[in-house]
């Protein structure tokens, strides 16, 4: 048991190192030069994850989706997702434009979000598709949805959507906040688990020494 708990501690320590290395790789990608639409289409968003991007295009406002039960700054509301038709290409990319609070008195009322017409420039970072929550029945259609499945949305809209998405960054604008959660390595948890396993290992060794050597020796001396 002592060997097992010691080995588990080493495993958690190595997992922490792997997560820190991944975090460093993400930060290095984020500091690389921004990609444009041509590179995004040519390489594909999955290969460019965490890179910054500066994209020109037009919002396809009729296909805007409001993802429900999303939080920002501790408040519940919507993530607003709108496809962006990339300039000088046939490709379309989903843009997570930001967060807006929900009207809980009129739950079906859509929040006011300004969507500029004409060509716009969007700055952001390449991200996976919007994260998914528990899907309630009937929450997969209409402008207000619980989740957005990229393949299903591509078939529904018949848009040539790229894989992945772009999280728009920058100060609040158009009625949207963009205080996105920063990805954390989570290495601290693994370090904590490692010390817990090693503490258990130390307890097991102490108990073994106590009951195998110290306690019997003390009993013999009393006899």
From TrEMBL:
<dbReference type="GO" id="GO:0005886">
    <property type="term" value="C:plasma membrane"/>
</dbReference>
<dbReference type="InterPro" id="IPR002994">
    <property type="entry name" value="Surf1/Shy1"/>
</dbReference>
<keyword id="KW-0812">Transmembrane</keyword>
<keyword id="KW-0472">Membrane</keyword>
<dbReference type="InterPro" id="IPR045214">
    <property type="entry name" value="Surf1/Surf4"/>
</dbReference>
<feature type="transmembrane region" description="Helical">
    <location>
        <begin position="195"/>
        <end position="215"/>
    </location>
</feature>
<keyword id="KW-1003">Cell membrane</keyword>
<dbReference type="Pfam" id="PF02104">
    <property type="entry name" value="SURF1"/>
</dbReference>
<protein>
    <recommendedName>
        <fullName>SURF1-like protein</fullName>
    </recommendedName>
</protein>
<keyword id="KW-1133">Transmembrane helix</keyword>
<comment type="similarity">
    <text>Belongs to the SURF1 family.</text>
</comment>
